[in-house]
């Protein structure tokens, strides 16, 4: 990886961590609430299981019933997190946890009327659902439509900086980049070992799986629709992450690695990747923000015309797309100005469209198809277990 790319990555990381409302530059190894061990981002913030369950139980009702005896100045850590629920909940909100990410289907606040509406609501073809959102009053709810109508719309709010930080830490590219650099360095001295190339291929899928398991937006979809989204999202994250690392580490210059790739996936897939590389973003932050948009943005386009999706899932996807597109565009304006932002955003979209062609070509590789199926099975199992845990937790609260 060249010097300019290293400086770009360093600048992006410093930029985010220097903002007063941002998280410190850490991985998911530490809970942002109490400091305990944490493996995933839950409801918008890296957090341990106890703090995740605490927020899930109290996010909606806790603000009204909890009171602090020290006027909100309690320290919250792993040893005393049970002492003051008020300060613990306040710290959850301060670190970006969002109650709207808690699945509404299991919320005790659902009224009997809402339940009846959900039970009677019929499945509707996607084309008919889309027409509902043409109503002007509903479209106003999506802030992306107003981005270019006001100068103030380009300002990033504190909540958006927190969202940017959460999205950045949701995808951990560190292992991929490390392997990519090893391949590039070995190529300069000798032939890259086949085992190192295999490690890189395996890590691409592992990184995609970890991202999906920590992506709380999947919980905003209905259980029935979620499975349809996971498969194409796994494809999208796998190849987008692989191609980004490919470009950062200049793996096209590593002849032995290219040979290993062709032997595993074929010439057509290699040609597809080479086309994407021309447009792939090198800015780490922009790449990760775009990744969050791409995770859901292509799903509706790939649905068969007669596929039926619950209206609440379609609406949730629209909000996810709107939020991701808004923060991506605003961050582009913040860092690069209007002219470069337009060019970079166009390249971002072009790279994603070409990546969809790569996904199509990858279906001819049995190895890839099997690895994607493995990701989908693991993620679905993790979500099901979390559903069971959530149901049991709600029963215990009754």
SSE diagram, text form:
Elements: H1 3-18, E1 40-42, E2 45-47, H2 49-58, H3 62-65, H4 85-94, H5 112-120, E3 124-125, H6 126-132, H7 136-139, H8 158-170, H9 174-189, H10 194-214, H11 223-248, H12 255-265, H13 267-277, H14 284-297, H15 299-302, E4 308-309, H16 311-362, H17 366-397
Antiparallel strand pairs: 1-2, 3-4
Textual characterization of the structure:
The protein is mostly helical and 398 residues long. It contains 17 helices and four strands. The protein has helices spanning 3-18, 49-58, 62-65, 85-94, 112-120, 126-132, 136-139, 158-170, 174-189, 194-214, 223-248, 255-265, 267-277, 284-297, 299-302, 311-362, 366-397, and strands at 40-42, 45-47, 124-125, 308-309. It has a two-stranded antiparallel sheet with strand order 1-2. The radius of gyration is 22 Å and the shape is globular.
């Amino acid at each position: 990886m060249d010097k300019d790319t290293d400086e770009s990555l360093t600048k992006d990381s410093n930029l985010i961590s220097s903002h007063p409302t941002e998280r410190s530059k850490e991985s998911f190894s530490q809970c942002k609430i109490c400091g305990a061990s944490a493996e995933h981002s839950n409801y918008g913030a890296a957090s341990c299981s106890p703090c995740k369950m605490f927020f899930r139980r109290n996010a909606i009702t806790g603000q009204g019933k909890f009171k602090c005896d020290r006027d909100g100045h309690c320290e919250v850590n792993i040893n005393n997190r049970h002492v003051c629920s008020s300060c613990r909940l306040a710290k959850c909100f301060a670190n970006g946890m969002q109650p709207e990410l808690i699945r509404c289907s299991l919320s005790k606040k659902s009224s009997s009327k809402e339940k009846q509406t959900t039970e009677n609501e019929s499945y509707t073809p996607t084309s008919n659902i889309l027409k509902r959102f043409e109503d002007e009053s509903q479209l106003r709810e999506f802030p992306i439509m107003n981005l270019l109508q006001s100068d103030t719309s380009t300002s990033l709010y504190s909540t958006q900086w927190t969202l940017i930080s959460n999205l950045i830490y949701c995808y951990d590219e560190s292992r991929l980049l490390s392997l990519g650099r090893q391949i590039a360095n070995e190529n300069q001295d000798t032939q890259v070992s086949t085992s190192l190339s295999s490690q890189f291929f395996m890590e691409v899928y592992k990184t995609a799986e970890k991202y999906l398991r920590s992506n709380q937006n999947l919980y905003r979809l209905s259980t029935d629709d979620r499975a349809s989204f996971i498969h194409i999202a796994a494809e999208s994250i796998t190849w987008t992450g692989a191609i980004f690392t490919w470009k950062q580490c200049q793996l096209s210059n590593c002849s032995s690695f290219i040979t290993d790739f062709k032997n595993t996936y074929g010439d057509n897939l290699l040609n597809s990747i080479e086309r994407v590389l021309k447009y792939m973003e090198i800015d780490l932050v922009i790449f990760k923000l775009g990744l969050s948009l791409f995770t859901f943005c292509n799903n509706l386009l790939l649905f068969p015309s007669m596929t039926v999706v619950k209206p609440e899932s379609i609406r949730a996807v629209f909000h996810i797309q709107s939020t991701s597109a808004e923060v991506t565009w605003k961050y582009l304006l913040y860092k690069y100005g209007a002219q470069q932002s337009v060019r970079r955003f166009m390249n971002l979209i072009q790279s994603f469209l070409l990546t969809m062609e790569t996904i199509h070509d990858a279906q001819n590789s049995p190895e890839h198809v099997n690895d994607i199926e493995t990701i989908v099975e693991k993620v679905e199992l993790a979500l099901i277990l979390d559903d069971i845990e959530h149901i049991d937790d709600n029963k215990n609260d009754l």
